[in-house]
Amino acid sequence: MAGPEVTLTQGTLRGTTSRDIRGNPFFKFQGIPYAKPPLGDLRFKAPVPPEPWTGILDASKEGHVSYHKDLLRNNTIFGAEDCLLLNVYTKKLPSNDNKILRPVLFWIHGGGFFYGSGSEQLYGPDFLITEDVVIVTINYRLGILGFVSFEDPSLEVPGNAGLKDQVLALKWVQKNISKFGGDPNNVTIFGESAGGASVHLLVLSPMADGLFHKAIAQSGCALNPWARGTTGCKFLAPALGLEGADERTIYEALKTKTLEEIGQIQDIIIKEFVPNEPRALGFVVETNSARAFLEEEPLTLMLTGRFKQVPFMTGYTSGEGMIFEILPREIVDFQDVVPWSFEYRRDAPETKIIADKIKKLYFGDDTPSKNISKKYDLVSDSQIIHGLYVTVLTQYPLSKAPIYFYRMTVETELNFMKKLLKIEVPGVSHLDDIGYLFSHFATPEIKPGSVEDLSLSRFVRLWTNFAKFGNPTPDNRDRLLKTLWKPVTTANVDFLDIGKELVVLDNPDSERMKFWKQLFDESPAGQKAKVLA
């Protein structure tokens, strides 16, 4: 029996069918090109729209993902350079008898801008699609291919190519999603970790104006220190044997490298990462680009109210820092923990003073190895939670749309990352929220009526309510949720604690967040922020 078919201006697709966690059918269309393959002269550059095809495109299986190593599966190498593909999952296709369009959830995967993909092996639609939404997952370029930047404008590689991939995928959705039963006027972007940072950057980027209507940033934002990259390409010169060379020479050399050689150069860059300095590859502020993704600092845009006035939801897991056990690095010098985004020099006396304050708050006279829970708190706060907290405090007074804040504390068999890392102290690891929204290669059996079933159902209801209504709890009579989650309206920061029950509280992790806010306010970056505010 032939699979379902959809005809776009690009051509005709033939997909397949599957069943969700409740056993109900849905349609799958995978491996759909949303851009021309970024090969040859398009390598490192902004994506361009796809070309049409003839005949029927087989969309019954996924195509290539972006080239990367999978940290969760023994550093196995996946992907190819021809990766600008997306997947669409829908319950119903439009017909003469059914012209109702459904809310669209557009997923941006995480992985630090180096790893990950939109693959069904990592982000299966089986849970979210039970609430009758249309789901889109995408691949975008990672690492050097997606985030290298050159300051020479004649090279036309100002950076942020991976983020521009996301923008073009959103344009594809605006043009085509109605053919799959999705509503182009009701698109919610959501993502986790680097995907969460991407969501926040899209909220700030003029390039994405008019392409979405709601946003959810999970465990990541534009202010997190690991999201920012280095402008220019000088860091590549030693790995290429071109120390002292100009940018054009480096660019031409990089263009000739095979995918495997680029992967080897990336490995060198990752190993040479220096704490408390911007990463080699991440988002950059573009200064010499006619079509820039971002031309000003994220905090400047936030403080001056130049962000999209759309409902915004963000939050974190209680033990975000557990994820760093994948790449264990013992804290030896606490100056390494002071975020570079505070704008202190690494060797400045103030950096040492702040480092001593951090050590005293979290460890007293102990060492991190003797108090692993506090180590996780410190990494969580410095790398993720503080940035989210500042984002909420900065944006809510200037936002005409509601902002919702949450903390995830629920622990069940679905917390796959914590189980994978074999961590036994209390807390919810970075990435553990994924198992409540998507099926994946490690999803355990979920028994009807179990705490796992109840918890994922609540997650799915909250997220899809937000996509449908811009409010995660529009009806306090909902027997599944049994609560009313209020948006942030004061500096007390109302939030939802997502545990085995849903509880509305205020001031999450208040002692630690007040400490980090004071450090930031006293920093050079904080002083600049006061001038703008």
Give a brief description.
The protein is of the alpha/beta class and 533 residues long.
How would you describe what is shown here?
Its EC number is 3.1.1.-. This is Carboxylic ester hydrolase. It comes from Zophobas morio. Residues 4-516 form the Carboxylesterase type B domain. It holds the Pfam family COesterase. The chain has a single domain (5-329, 370-532), classed as Rossmann fold (3-Layer(aba) Sandwich). The chain has 13 helices and 16 strands. It has helices at 143-147, 161-176, 194-204, 237-240, 247-255, 259-271, 298-303, 349-363, 372-395, 416-421, 451-469, 510-522, 524-532, and strands at 5-7, 12-14, 16-19, 25-33, 56-58, 68-70, 76-78, 85-90, 102-108, 134-138, 182-192, 214-218, 312-317, 403-408, 494-498, 502-506. The protein is α/β, with parallel strands linked by helices and 533 residues long. The radius of gyration is 22 Å and the shape is globular. An eleven-stranded mixed sheet has the order 3-4-8-10-9-11-12-13-14-15-16, sandwiched between helices. Helix 9 crosses helix 12 and helix 12 crosses helix 13.
Largest sheet: 11 strands, mixed
Radius of gyration: 22 Å
The coarse overall form would be: globular
Q: Please list the strands of the largest sheet in the order they lie side by side.
A: 3-4-8-10-9-11-12-13-14-15-16
CATH architectural arrangement: 3-Layer(aba) Sandwich
How many extended strands?
A: 16
